[in-house]
């Protein structure tokens, strides 16, 4: 009975996809938990919150951790909810690309897709470089630039191989990643609370600015990069919609729950680490035996728990970072594959190929790997590459949300196709999300992240020129929009 039910459900999913003009090429092996797990793994509180912990602490001090994280969580939930509703209406790989194409035309879809791909590659660079920073001390190796880059490349290659092998193994690893993240946070928090002397809870409200920027509120806003970079990649649940069973329901819940659960668990982690700080200036100035700066998160663990235990927990964080990078390649490759199969990417015939035995888009996977390595070579500094990826991804998130809001206000019927719906709160939630995204993108172009802003502006200008001079006359958008399927009603149960 169960097998027959699953077979019928799979048939309905294939029929649903066929209404959008696509055949079921990717293997539909993900359930609801695996769909949630891929976004939760990319958000990776043990990556974002830990990697940029020192940056946030330097900018806004303990108050950045006590108030900045909750503020960012609440506003990001409005973005996630807005995207979840769009995902429920358009449950296809490529996600953002299809939403923008349906609601704004092929030009918007093409631009959003490339901005999304670019942001994922930049994020992937920051994730794996941070992973390399955490692994080298555990192995007893010097954190030189050469060692860091070699370890970065080794990590990236391994993630590419697992993605190439098949989505089923990626789903299993992501399911395990949820355990690693939650268990890791509980171990971190438990060890700190049990073994380390702690500051009073009121310490989380101290507005200390160690960076010297004035006024303080501006430094606090810049420090939100810590939380905002963490809250990227949750579109992955939508990117793998064609590999998820009942995607109109499971993928939207994957988007929203990944942000909500990360918000709660992440706050426990950074609050515990902050309360364990005894000397903030000394922590930010800490260096290793070779004179290289020690990431603030590792510094907290070493001073609170001892060097050996602190390095061991740092190694656990590096495992979580590896899972995060693994999922980022999955998400980015599906975005590239989806655009390529519609003829929107150079070499589209190659990039749209799917291995018939493994059900994975191999050329798209290895292209994402190569571009991620190039992004790290270009940016070099973690705050720059993380700011760059955050702005690019939030721009890719914001455009379809804004287009959806415009269509909603004009009386368009697209919300009726969403099984997961915001209902009468849709317009209000969309407005908050759009304003917040705009604010984040402006703030993150300010010093010390000028290179990120200039690079993103250059990429955006280049895409616009390329569209007008080359692509516009050749690219008609998704297959289903060309066939007139702008809105697909939910399936009959």
Describe the structure.
- The protein has 493 residues and is an all-alpha fold.
- It has a single domain, classed as Amino acid/polyamine transporter I (Up-down Bundle).
- It is 72% helix and 0% strand.
- It is built from 21 helices and no strands.
- Helix 7 runs antiparallel to helix 17 (362-379), helix 8 (167-195) packs parallel to helix 12 and helix 18 runs antiparallel to helix 19 (426-443).
- The protein is globular.
How does the SSE layout of this entry go?
Blueprint: H1 2-18, H2 32-43, H3 45-51, H4 53-89, H5 96-104, H6 106-139, H7 145-165, H8 167-195, H9 216-223, H10 225-230, H11 236-239, H12 247-275, H13 280-284, H14 296-305, H15 307-341, H16 348-351, H17 362-379, H18 382-409, H19 426-443, H20 450-471, H21 479-482
> Quaternary state, please?
single chain
Share of residues in strands: under 5%
**What general outline do the C-alpha atoms trace?**
globular
Our measurement of the CA-to-CA distance between the termini, rounded to an integer number of angstroms, reads 17 Å
Number of domains: 1
Number of extended strands: 0
Largest sheet: none
CATH homologous superfamily title:
Amino acid/polyamine transporter I
Cα radius of gyration in angstroms: 22 Å
Q: Provide the low-confidence segments as ranges.
A: 1-5, 483-493
Report the helical percentage: over 70%
CATH topology: Amino acid/polyamine transporter I
Q: CATH architecture, please?
A: Up-down Bundle
Average of per-residue pLDDT values: 84
Structural category is mainly alpha
- CATH top level? Mainly Alpha
Order of helices and strands: HHHHHHHHHHHHHHHHHHHHH
Please count the helical segments.
21
């Amino acid at each position: 009975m169960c097998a027959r039910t699953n077979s019928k459900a799979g048939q309905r999913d294939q029929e649903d996809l066929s209404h959008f003009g696509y055949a079921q090429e990717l293997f539909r092996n993900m359930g609801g938990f695996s769909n949630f797990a891929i976004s939760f793994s990319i958000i990776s509180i043990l990556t974002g919150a830990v990697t940029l912990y020192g940056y946030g602490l330097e900018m806004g001090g303990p108050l950045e951790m006590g108030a900045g994280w909750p503020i960012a969580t609440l506003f990001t939930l409005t973005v996630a909810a807005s995207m979840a509703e769009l995902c429920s209406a358009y449950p296809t790989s490529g996600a953002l690309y299809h939403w923008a194409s349906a609601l704004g035309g092929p030009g918007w879809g093409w631009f959003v897709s490339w901005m999304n791909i670019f942001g994922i590659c930049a994020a992937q660079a920051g994730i794996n470089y941070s992973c390399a920073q955490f692994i080298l001390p555990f192995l007893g190796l010097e954190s030189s630039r050469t060692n860091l880059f070699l370890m970065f490349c080794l990590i990236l290659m391994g993630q590419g191989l697992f993605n190439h092998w098949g989505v089923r193994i990626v789903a299993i690893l992501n399911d395990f990643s949820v355990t690693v993240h939650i268990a890791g946070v509980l171990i971190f928090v438990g060890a700190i609370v049990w073994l380390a002397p702690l500051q009073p809870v009121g310490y989380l409200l101290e507005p200390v600015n160690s960076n010297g920027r004035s006024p303080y509120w501006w430094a606090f806003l810049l420090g939100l990069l810590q939380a905002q970079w963490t809250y990227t990649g949750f579109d992955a649940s939508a990117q793998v919609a064609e590999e998820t069973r009942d995607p109109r329901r499971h993928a939207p819940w994957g988007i929203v729950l990944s942000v909500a659960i990360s918000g709660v668990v992440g706050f426990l982690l950074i609050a515990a680490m902050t309360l364990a700080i005894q000397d903030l200036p000394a922590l930010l100035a800490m260096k290793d035996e070779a004179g290289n700066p020690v990431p603030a998160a590792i510094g907290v663990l070493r001073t609170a728990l001892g060097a050996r235990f602190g390095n061991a927990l740092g190694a656990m964080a590096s495992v979580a970072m590896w899972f995060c990078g693994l999922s980022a390649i999955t998400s980015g490759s599906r975005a590239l594959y989806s655009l390529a199969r519609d003829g929107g990417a150079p070499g589209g015939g190659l990039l749209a190929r799917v291995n018939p035995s493994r059900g994975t888009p191999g050329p798209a996977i290895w292209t994402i790997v190569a571009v991620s390595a190039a992004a790290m070579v270009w940016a070099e500094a973690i705050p720059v590459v993380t700011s760059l990826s955050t702005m690019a991804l939030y721009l890719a998130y914001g455009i379809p949300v804004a287009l959806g809001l415009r269509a909603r206000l004009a009386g368009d019927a697209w919300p009726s196709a969403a099984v997961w719906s915001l209902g009468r709160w849709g317009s209000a939630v969309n407005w908050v999300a759009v304003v917040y995204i705009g604010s984040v993108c402006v703030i993150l172009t300010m010093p010390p992240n000028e290179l990120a802003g200039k690079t993103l502006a250059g990429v955006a200008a280049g895409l616009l020129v390329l569209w007008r001079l080359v692509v516009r006359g050749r690219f008609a958008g998704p297959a289903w929009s060309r066939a007139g399927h702008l809105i697909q009603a939910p399936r009959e149960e």
